[in-house]
Amino acid sequence: MDYIEPICPFDASAYTGTPDAEPTGQRMNVPAMIRQLDQLIHAGRAVKAQHFLEKRRVEAQQLGDWRAELSILNEMMGQYRFGNKREEGFAAVREGMELIRLHHLGHTVSGATVMLNAATTLKHFGRAEEALPIFRHVGRVYSDNLDPGDYRFGGLYNNMAGACMDLGDYAGAERCYRMALNVLGLGRGQDNDMAVTWCSLAELYDKQDPLDERVGQCMERAWAHLNAEGLAHDGYHALTIRKCLPCFDYCGYFLYVKELKERLEEIRERT
Questions:
Q1: Which of 35, 128, 140, 237 is in Cβ range 3.0-4.6 Å of 166 for a Cys bridge?
Q2: What is the predicted pLDDT for the residue at 157?
Q3: What is the Cα–Cα distance from 161 to 168, expressed in whole angstroms?
Q4: What CATH architecture is 11-145?
């Protein structure tokens, strides 16, 4: 059944308070689990990654390790977006948000980061109006707890921009994309994320006017970041290429598309 309890208007008070203590008893090794998951994702084994997460979640529930379960639900949201599994994505959002509510994590950075992923999932599956209040709440939590240049603001602004774009607020979307670029530009090693943001900005300009010269300028900037000196051609770079390829193809950069596909194949053969 395609249904999720409406979250808009978002009532932050239901998710905040004094966070619960750590779970007692046996704990799951979450970092080791994430390493295993990354290996599957970087090898392009998306279906197996989803099954892996579903099994690990059952284990976390059996252990009573709700923090591990929340981490797993957070990863499941991303995998269901990637696999375009709408019902499963909504279920992961609903269950993840419920854990955050039950354990009063809504004003913590870790809780807000899961909420960011939940809002991104809602947006991805056409629920941008419900996602925006959650994005704004995450922004308040981040502003209260993080340095303004923290890389996590980049992800927030990028995803909020997408929601604004879906709702026809092009000025708001451009403002958010520019804020994301400013944050990402403060750190080193952000070329992959910068490339994705420039592609997104190109799509925004194209949506308003396909003849806007800024479309081409954004695409060239994205290409420059994809070819930045010292950028590792690893699994994360492969994910970035998959995100950027449709935009390069749509805008007619066929030689770039050919080179990026060849690079993808080289990465796949090494993993």
A1: 128
A2: 96
A3: 11
A4: Alpha Horseshoe (1.25)
